[in-house]
Each structure stands twice: as C-alpha cells, then as structure tokens.
Amino acid sequence: MTLGATSSLVESLQDTRKRDENLQRLTSDFDGLTAEWVAKGETTEQEARSFVDTLLQQMAGTPASNATVTTTATPVTTTALQTELKTLTQEIINLREEIEKLPKTSN
User: Fold this and answer.
1) Residue-range definition of the domain harbouring residue 74
2) What is the mean pLDDT of the chain?
3) With bands split at pLDDT 50, 70 and 90, how would you rate the model's confidence at 24?
4) Structural domains counted in the chain
5) Are 97 and 74 in contact (CB under 8 A)?
6) What is the DSSP letter of 66?
7) In the structure, how many helices (H) and strands (E) does the chain have?
8) Residue 29 forms part of a structural domain
C-alpha cells in the first residue's frame, strides 16, 4: 500500500486536478483509496522488479527469459547509476518488508 500511496502522491504533485480528486477521496472514500493504492503498489513493484531483472540480465549478457514487462533500456554503464539503482532496489525491498510486517486489518 505504501508504494502505491507514494506513486499516487507523485502523480498528485504533478497534476493539480488529480491532487484535488485524491484529497476529496481521502475524506469520503478512504477504503476505496487504500485498495487502489494496494493494487497500484503491487503493479509498480512488479514493473520495477521486471525492469531491474532485465537490466541485470543485460549487464550480465544473458537474454531475459521470463520478463513480463517489455521495456526499452540501455545497459547501465556509470558506477553512480549502478549505485543509485541498487539503492532504489533496496528501498523497494525494505518497503515491501515493512508492509509485510504491518498488522492485517479486516476493514
């Protein structure tokens, strides 16, 4: 849910209409909004994992055999970019672990 909420927040910051819509939904349809965030978070995580896997496979020189998302990517050649990619990947993993530790609610 956190990843989906973050993604929605970024979209809201870029689009004032979307921001107003989300703010209104926070007060009127929070359960629906959280369900949307969960779905968006799962999709974002799957796309990010697929993208990272594809990049790593390209760097290793092996073809992507089970990629579910088609992307156009060039190999990462700078150390700074590789470091940033690893940092972002670790942040996604940490967020996922935090989400899994949250108590499940029946709301």
Assistant:
1) 2-101
2) 76
3) confident
4) 1
5) no
6) S
7) 4, 0
8) yes
